[in-house]
Design goal:
- The chain is of the alpha+beta class and 196 residues long.
- Helices cover 51% and strands 19% of the residues.
- It has a four-stranded antiparallel β-sheet with strand order 1-4-3-2.
- The longest helix has 66 residues.
Length: 196
């Protein structure tokens, strides 16, 4: 009992939030640090009731096999701030002289600010990825429009060249069908000869 009292005094003086748990993960004695953090009063958090101040989505993380060390990130309700705060929780078993687990120390370090920074970075990265994706889409659309305009211009150019070539062909045909002076003179002589 004397050693346990000294341990509890040490726990309460530590800069992080610390819980003294039974080997099965329950609370068997008042935990002033937990009361100050969560606003829960003894004996309302006796046994496994202390988990009620842990976010329901994180409670399953607290399940640990007997004698195993565990480290998880959980949200705990802060009564003073009336909000959930993130904690890095490390559960370490304490063994007696025979090696049997007699208790566990659960140390909680507040990492709310770090989690907020991570969330902001994730949102920033998501926004950057979205902008890059949008840029790629716009580039593809611009390229497609450029190809369409180029094809249209080429089509108009070909049509214009066709119109220019058509009159020139008619002109060549007209020239070819004009009478040559020698041909006209020969036809005239042939005509006079038939009437002599």
């Amino acid at each position: 009992l004397r050693d346990e009292s000294r341990l509890r005094a040490l726990i309460q003086s530590m800069p992080v939030h610390v819980l003294l748990l039974e080997p099965d993960g329950t609370v068997a004695a008042p935990q002033p640090v937990w009361e100050k953090l969560t606003g829960k009063r003894w004996p309302d958090y006796r046994g496994r009731a202390w988990r009620e101040r842990v976010h329901e989505e994180d409670r399953a993380k607290l399940d640990v096999e007997m004698g195993q060390e565990k480290r998880v990130e959980i949200r705990v309700w802060s009564e003073a701030e009336r909000a959930w705060r993130w904690f890095d929780m490390r559960i370490v078993p304490m063994r007696g002289p025979t090696g049997r687990v007699e208790a566990s120390i659960a140390a909680l370090a507040d990492v709310t600010e770090r989690k907020a920074d991570e969330e902001r970075r994730e949102l920033l990265l998501h926004d950057m990825r979205h902008r890059l994706k949008l840029r790629d889409v716009l580039v593809e659309e611009d390229a497609a429009q450029l190809v369409a305009v180029s094809q249209h211009v080429e089509h108009d150019r070909c049509r214009a060249l066709g119109r220019l070539e058509l009159p020139s062909l008619h002109a060549r045909g007209a020239i070819e069908h004009q009478d040559h002076p020698h041909r006209s003179l020969r036809r005239e002589r042939e005509h006079v000869g038939r009437h002599v």
